[in-house]
């Protein structure tokens, strides 16, 4: 009959300095199913090294290891992980419990890696702990348990997948004699059930409890003595609960573990997130502010009226000659109004005059406009009426004042019907225009709207106008209309001594300018997000080093390299995702404050930008969590376990 474990000429050496340190020198050893073996030897004799080889935590340098007739050297790392998970159960001198988990949670870990359904493994873990006298301590964390209790939790963990072989490396080494005694009797009990128990110790009293004592010194077997007695029959029908959890459930497990790890290191997790929070908050805010200001500017432009062209004398705004160019006259407007593509024309003439009302004096712009001007320019009245075609025809002195004028001249009284002296001309107020918000802060100048005919006759004394506002027919293309107006007027004047402003052009220019600005500032915010991502990577790398012994333990109880990688990757993604949510909240909070402060425009948050922010936080987690995750998964479990 082949023994359960057969070692033939096993050696293990470590590179040291320029040469090699050989720790095991050709170990030959057979262990049968159901044996209780103690490996004894002085400190440094190679006991732990041998134990790690036995438990498939480490590979021998040379020699053959046949486990149940199978050559271990032929197995891949995933197969070895499966063996550690299901065939072996490790018990360590220093327990190696995960401090952020309860006793129950610790016992469940190997079953999670095995894929046992949650309810099954919880029942089983609770039953095992109950059996080991820990029934009342299921929810205690390792820090709240004594050494003996912690060792019992670790024995329960070794049993949760119903291991056939229990490997205990100095299980009583850190315990007082009473607790040590209890642990030994538990191991004896497990052996009596048919489990193979291999225990490493330097204490001959402990070794005396075993049926077979193998003494090693300097990596060689010195003696191998068996006490006669019967070896328990191989009962061993695994009852760890079959059935595996679907992928989604495994993901949920990984998420739960990541959350536990984050909860255990709240401050560190928060600091890791901080870069992401700031990055996401600034990207979302900047995009919202950009969109808000763009919409505000567009609203202002639409106040100016759509479908309108404005014709002014001169080359362009700021042309010093424009005041003297008198070729743009009323007749131009009259002729233009006859063109099919022009819906209406409203001439503007203006004159600056001193207003007097009672004791109050102020300078105002008298805007001479046509009766359609209010419609064309989108000006609405809060009070009274505007003037009509008849008023224009008879050069009426009825006028509309704007809010600024109203506040300057009539702070406490109703302006309707009052007569104001503008220069030498008396004007009667018949309406008040609503304040228009043109540009930040609005305008501070005073404006009075009067029929253009009145302004021409009373103030200017000529038929030249300071501008024509044309409303273009609805179905006409603006660019085409602009071109036609240009050709028409050039023909009339003999030269192009005017310029045309197209509101659509202004709108397009402003839109593209704000878009450029938004892209620019968003780029800066994205850089800050990258910096945040590098911060995440940095802290995750440090956290891998800090959690080396946790990673070693997880591998010892059967985690695959892919499990470790997934765990760290999920942690990174989770940190970034939570950071992203917090960042979006911060951005929304910023928007509320912005509103309270009462700015002229509000940030506009789009669902798209928020979704993009969340997606990029996930992406950052994946990208910057990858390196730490790979680092963690590449750790050597033996080296990792010996830390801490
Ligand atoms: P024991 O458990 O019997 O006290 P170990 O098996 O832990 O002894 O170690 C045996 C020898 O191997 C010691 O001299 C130790 O320094 C050496 N050793 C163990 N692990 C390593 C390693 N990873 N690298 C180099 N030397 C090691
Ligand atoms: Mg040791």
UniProtKB/TrEMBL annotation:
Pfam hit, one: MacB_PCD
Taxonomy, superkingdom: Bacteria
Gene3D superfamilies assigned to the protein according to its UniProt record, in alphabetical order: P-loop containing nucleotide triphosphate hydrolases
Membrane topology designation: Multi-pass membrane protein
Main location: membrane
Hydrolase keyword on record: no
Key words, A-Z: Antibiotic resistance, ATP-binding, Cell inner membrane, Cell membrane, Membrane, Nucleotide-binding, Translocase, Transmembrane, Transmembrane helix, Transport
Segments crossing the lipid bilayer: 270-290, 519-545, 566-593, 605-627
CDD domains in UniProt: ABC_MJ0796_LolCDE_FtsE (cd03255)
InterPro entries linked: AAA+_ATPase (IPR003593), ABC3_permease_C (IPR003838), ABC_transporter-like_ATP-bd (IPR003439), ABC_transporter-like_CS (IPR017871), MacB-like_ATP-bd (IPR017911), MacB_PCD (IPR025857), Macrolide_Exporter_MacB (IPR050250), P-loop_NTPase (IPR027417)
All residue ranges annotated as the ABC transporter domain in the record: 5-243
SUPFAM superfamilies with a match to the protein in the record: P-loop containing nucleoside triphosphate hydrolases
Cellular localization per UniProt: Cell inner membrane
Family, similarity comment: Belongs to the ABC transporter superfamily. Macrolide exporter (TC 3.A.1.122) family.
PANTHER family: MACROLIDE EXPORT ATP-BINDING_PERMEASE PROTEIN MACB (PTHR30572:SF14), MEMBRANE COMPONENT OF TRANSPORTER-RELATED (PTHR30572)
Protein name per UniProt: Pyoverdine export ATP-binding/permease protein PvdT
Native source organism of the sequence: Paracoccus broussonetiae
